[in-house]
Amino acid sequence: MNFEVYHNLVEALHKAGYRLTPQRLAICRYLASGREHPTPAAVYARVREQVPTISLATVYNTLALLRQLGLITEMGADASGVRYETDTHPHANLICLQCGRVVDAPLPDLAHVQAVLAAQNAFELRSLRLDAYGLCPDCRRTSMPLATETMSYA
Amino acid sequence: MNFEVYHNLVEALHKAGYRLTPQRLAICRYLASGREHPTPAAVYARVREQVPTISLATVYNTLALLRQLGLITEMGADASGVRYETDTHPHANLICLQCGRVVDAPLPDLAHVQAVLAAQNAFELRSLRLDAYGLCPDCRRTSMPLATETMSYA
DNA sequence: CTATAATTTTAGAATGATTCTAAATTCATA
DNA sequence: TATGAATTTAGAATCATTCTAAAATTATAG
Ligand SMILES: [Mn+2]
Ligand SMILES: [Mn+2]
Ligand SMILES: [Zn+2]
Ligand SMILES: [Zn+2]
After folding, report:
1. CA 20 to 30 Å from A104, out of B26, B53, B105, B129?
2. Which of A107, A123, A152 sits opposite B117 (nearest CB)?
3. CATH number for the domain including B140?
4. Are residues A10 and A46 in the same domain?
5. Parent domain of B135
6. Which whole-number Å values give the CA distances from A152 to A105, A146, B33, in the listed order?
7. Do A84 and A125 have their domain in common?
């Protein structure tokens, strides 16, 4: 677990006046435990190992709360639902069309891209999302024909 | 309506051996009619004006078919469901956090970005999606506080 | 022009993620 | 310890999407 990330989450909740319940702390611990891009169902499954009585509703509530506070961001939904980002810094996501894995990738000039976009359009930009679809190393090896069904984004 | 786009869609369907039914043609006509990023429900609503007996299932089926053929692409789902792209060329989408409007924006160096990503990672990239969130000109004027509820992506 | 079979459409049922609800629990505070 | 606000919980409700099986359409062969 990344203690710094964990501490950020907990402190932000506390500063915003929310109670640090065992359920919320367990969810934060899980979110700070890796570079995953979990669905609510995945969070529920993993956190339940630590807090067996937690409900799915609380997972949804807490994720929504953390999002309101800007501590996590929501990705678009794939076949198994929404996914959450724990890294709020601008970066690209490499998404495997075969297995659904999401890997973070740094991309130095994202701020530059946003600046160009903002300059050329009347939009007032707040954030950027860059998703790249393809085959992860593992799935590249077991190179199946890549069913056009599998994942819908192209 | 953009006849060139329409013709592309129809011809691709025909070449792939699919029947050019009134329902499919009406959907293609609608898709070629503007730069929208419609949801299946929106397609259904508009096409129904021309083909009142069409079913929602047919809309879903046809959109899935056009996607399989690579003629349209699917965007992530927002509050009202998936949206479809009729422009398959690489471009950025400017998405209004207030009203949900989606506007296409050219971005010259997208190919370059993809090349950099591919070079730095073991992923075999197929496509790129660049979504920028902010306030459209209209919503900027009527500058409400931008409810954190409204749209979830940040 | 029929008959037959494949394709397509359709309405409605089923599914599954997400949200809502109302009651029970926990917690801060007096 | 008593009170009230915040939180959690299980289950119901919602809503987009998918599935199903029957009806309609269309291509093709005789
Ligand atoms: Mn990420
Ligand atoms: Mn677009
Ligand atoms: Zn993979
Ligand atoms: Zn707007």
Report:
1. B105
2. A107
3. 3.30.1490.190
4. yes
5. 89-144
6. 21, 11, 23
7. no
Residues of B in contact with A74 (CB under 8 A): 152-154
What tokens does A122 get? Answer: 């009347």
B83 burial class (0-12, 13-18, 19+ CB within 10 angstroms)? buried
| Tens-place pLDDT, residues A34-56 | 889 999 999 999 999 999 999 99
Say how far residue B30 (Cα) sits from the centre of its chain. Answer: 12
Q: Is residue A150 part of a domain?
A: no
Q: Nearest nucleotide, C1' to the C-alpha of B39?
A: D16
B150 touches strand C (CB under 7 A): no
For the record, the structure tokens of B73 come out as: 């692409």
Q: What's the Å distance between residue A148 CA and nucleotide D13 C1'?
A: 34
Tell me whether residues B135 and A117 touch, CB distance under 8 A.
no
How far are the Cα atoms of A51, A60, B22 from residue A47, in angstroms, in the given order? 6, 12, 51
Question: Do B15 and B41 sit in the same domain of this protein?
Answer: yes
pLDDT tens digits along A80-136:
899 999 999 889 999 998 888 899 998 877 888 888 898 988 899 999 999 999 999
The answer to whether A48 and B126 have CB atoms below 8 angstroms apart is: no
Task: Determine the distance in angstroms separating the CA of B29 from the nearest CA of chain A, rounded to an integer.
Answer: 22
Distances (CA, A) of A26 to A48, A52, A55: 9, 11, 12
From chain A, pick out residues whose CB is under 8 angstroms from the CB of B131. Answer: 128-131
Taking alpha carbons only, the member of A108, A116, A99 closest to residue B120 is A108
Global pTM? 0.90
Q: Stated in angstroms, how far is A57 CA from D13 C1'? A: 14
Compute the nearest-CA separation of A84 from chain B (Å): 10
Which burial class, exposed, middle or buried, applies to B104 when counting CB atoms under 10 A from its CB (0-12, 13-18, 19+)? middle
